[in-house]
Design goal:
GO terms for molecular function: phospholipase activity. The chain is α/β, with parallel strands linked by helices. The protein has 12 helices and 9 strands. The protein folds into 2 domains: about 40-390, 3-Layer(aba) Sandwich (Rossmann fold); about 410-455.
Length: about 475
Amino acid sequence: MFFKNFLFLPALGFAIIFPPDPKIFEGVKEFNDWRVKRDELINLTDYKFGWPDFACETLLTSGDVPKNVHKITPSDIGIIAALGDSVSVAQAAEAETVSELLNIYPGSNFVSGGDVRLDQQATLFNIFHQYNEKLRGASSSRIKKFYDFNFAVAGQTSDQLVNQTLKLVERLQNRLPIEEFQNSWKFVNIFIGHNDFCKICLNSSQIFSAQQFGKSINQSLNIIKENIPKVFVNIMPPINVFIHEATHKTLPFCETVHRKTCPCILELSEVEFDSIKKDYDLELKNVIEKIGRNDTFDVVLSPAIDLDKIPQIGNTSNLAFIALDCFHLSSIAHDISAKQIWKGLFQYVNHKENVDFETEDFSKVQCPPKECSYLRTIENSKNCQYSLPTGQTRELLMGGKGKTDGFSGISLFFILAMFVVGTTLILIFTKYSFSTQNSIQSQQFENERRRLLPIARTDLDDNLF
């Protein structure tokens, strides 16, 4: 309504007061149209969040901390950390109004989100937590936790990754007990480069070139290798932001937002962006291949959500996977990201799968393969044989190669034989113990009898008592 030349609008969950302007009316209408369309697709998608029935075998360690990065299971991960940009702090993921579009929701981000349970939404933290209840590194949207190791910052570009890494090193050294810092295995996720794409058409100094991107990644990895003991690094290539251009044809609000937040989507062509993306990916691959690995440090490339287009529903883009700001990942997309990364951790290096929205059943729990429950590295990707220190016994008891779904062959014979032998030994031991105990009691009884007899008759050997 109008009040002294000002307009009062209950816009999208909050009230704003401003001079009336046709452009504002148009902007509000665009946003409402976008939100209605997105809500329709969210309802149509009917996505099943989390894994309510997590039935994987979670006892994957003997309790001894592995000394080799090629022998770590999910149970061995004690700390989880994240480096990156706004995607890794879940900007706008839970936003429902205009006033929340710039909010971050680290408690539900796909890496370290700790505000949600696994039956509510999957995050790497709450999946790993099923295997290690002492896991540290959870992020919260409500408070800054003492052991929060997510140093991703909204709006940052890859040239700021080194600074994030140095802060992570400092936090780990200062917050963790010395023994835990030295001995616990750390999982570090790196996901950055989207803001580089959004600014690459604007700079003339090449600070957002593929070469500079690779240099920043390389510096960050070397800092981690030299300063953080026992670490497994998972790197995700940045998503090609040009995929958002598909929303412009039918949703003017998205184009308006992108013009402000990621102008290069409108300034560069699809062919130009494809070329830039290809250069970034090649640089990232080269850095990972050349990085010096050792027994306590390794790096893998995870293409989990390296999308070339927004997922489709019918003939239209499925906006359910996009946050309300028409750029970042929605809560659904964060759930999918965590599940796909988790699945990829147990796939061969260089054969990890990108998410397939058409065929993947995201409600199906992905358990580590029983034949090899190690987080895959180049070294253990081939001929991987999973075993605990008691591996031979474990294999016999599980029917060979860690099977838990039945008994077969020699394992069944072994179990039956051990049962018979064990039962026999128990019976023999029981009989011997009973006989020995009776003999001892009889001797004690005889000694007491002789003590109680009159002195003159201590030579008697009768059964009076």
